[in-house]
Design a protein that fits this description.
Layout: H1 2-24, H2 29-49, H3 60-76, H4 81-107, H5 113-132, E1 142-143, H6 151-177, H7 180-197, H8 202-228, E2 230-231, H9 233-237, H10 240-254, H11 261-279, H12 284-298, H13 302-310
Antiparallel strand pairs: 1-2
Helix pairs in contact: 2-6, 2-8, 2-10, 2-11, 3-4, 3-8, 4-8, 6-8, 7-8, 10-11, 10-13, 11-12
């Protein structure tokens, strides 16, 4: 009961801090919004790359699809800002999820470095297609409709939208990991051949996980596109060299394959990056590279994984990392 009470108090404090943050620090509301976006990036990537063990470099594809789909609906629907934005987000979520469902069975049939290279090609191809498609602005990009309100209200509005999305993404993924779906993903990660021999339809589960990640990423793309106000095909929508890589780094820094690791990694990565970009302008990429190197060397399992490994017993000795749940046969009916 004490542990449950402490956990409830912690969640309440975090929720209160998240709600009052843009009011206490209004000039940082946009950065807070991007922090929530980073959380969505890390959690959705970890569903495939951490829980399932498939290192994807192409998740940025769904972010870009959501951003462009929402912007096109807003431009061509003739609705006002609020209805157009709501319909655009829904269309973007459907478009990204549909793309994952169509591409999943083929791409996820690849394994190892072949899968990583294949997903990397998806992001590069999508950026080139968008840069040459005049209907969505080609290389000039697209401008989203102006937010009908003050600039301060605009930042807070999109912050709370992305905060809600980050919370829903985290809670949904956590609930999925606690059931049969999470056990199957871990079985695929540990030994996919044995999982198939046990009768699991691994391709279907892999595609389902990719679709869940695509759903939340597409919504985040639709919201972030309106937050920024401009969608560039290579530097925003399908920015594989930045957003696409950051997804992976944040999950690794926090601890891939853990529940809280991607969230902590997103916080650490984003705050560290903002500090470096503010105070080490010109050397920020060097400093960021050294920071990542230090984390990889001294925290090879990520922050959460390393803390679990080094957590002392009551008697003062270190303990081994314990699995979050017992090993259960995922084919057994509950």
């Amino acid at each position: 009961m004490k542990r449950r009470g402490r956990r409830a108090a912690l969640y309440t404090a975090l929720a209160a801090a998240a709600i009052v943050a843009p009011w206490l620090f209004p000039s940082y509301a946009t950065q807070f919004a991007f922090l929530c976006l980073m959380v969505v990036f890390a959690v959705t990537w970890d569903m495939v790359g951490g829980q399932m063990g498939y290192n994807s470099f192409g998740n940025i594809l769904f972010f870009g699809i959501g951003a462009y789909a929402c912007a096109v609906v807003q431009r061509d629907s003739g609705f006002g800002y609020a209805p157009g934005f709501a319909v655009g987000v829904a269309v973007g979520a459907c478009a990204g999820t549909l793309a994952a469902a169509v591409l999943g069975p083929g791409i996820l049939a690849l394994r190892g470095h072949y899968f990583a290279i294949g997903t990397l090609g998806l992001g590069v191809a999508a950026a080139d297609i968008a840069a040459g498609w005049h209907y969505i602005g080609a290389g000039s990009g697209m401008t989203t409709p102006l937010f009908p309100g003050a600039i301060q209200d605009r930042a807070k509005f999109f912050y709370f939208l992305l905060l809600a999305l980050a919370v829903v993404t985290f809670v949904t993924s956590r609930r999925l990991y606690q059931g049969r779906f999470g056990l199957v993903l871990n079985a695929i990660r540990d030994d996919e051949g044995k999982a198939e021999a046990m009768g699991l339809r691994t391709t279907g589960y892999k595609t389902m996980a990719w679709c869940v990640a695509a759903f939340f990423l597409s919504i985040s793309g639709a919201v972030a596109g309106n937050l920024v106000g401009y969608i560039d095909p290579r530097d925003f929508a399908f920015a594989g060299s930045t957003y696409g890589v950051w997804m992976i780094l944040m999950a690794i820094v926090g601890g891939r394959g853990t529940v809280w690791g991607p969230v902590i990694g997103a916080f650490v990565f984003h705050i560290t990056q903002e500090v470096f970009w503010t105070y080490l302008l010109g050397w920020q990429r060097v400093a960021m590279g050294l920071f990542i190197l230090v984390v990889v060397v001294y925290f090879p399992s990520g922050i959460v994984g390393s803390l679990r490994t080094r957590a002392p017993r009551p008697g003062g000795t270190e303990r081994e990392v314990l699995p979050e749940r017992a090993v259960v046969d995922p084919t057994r009916r509950q």
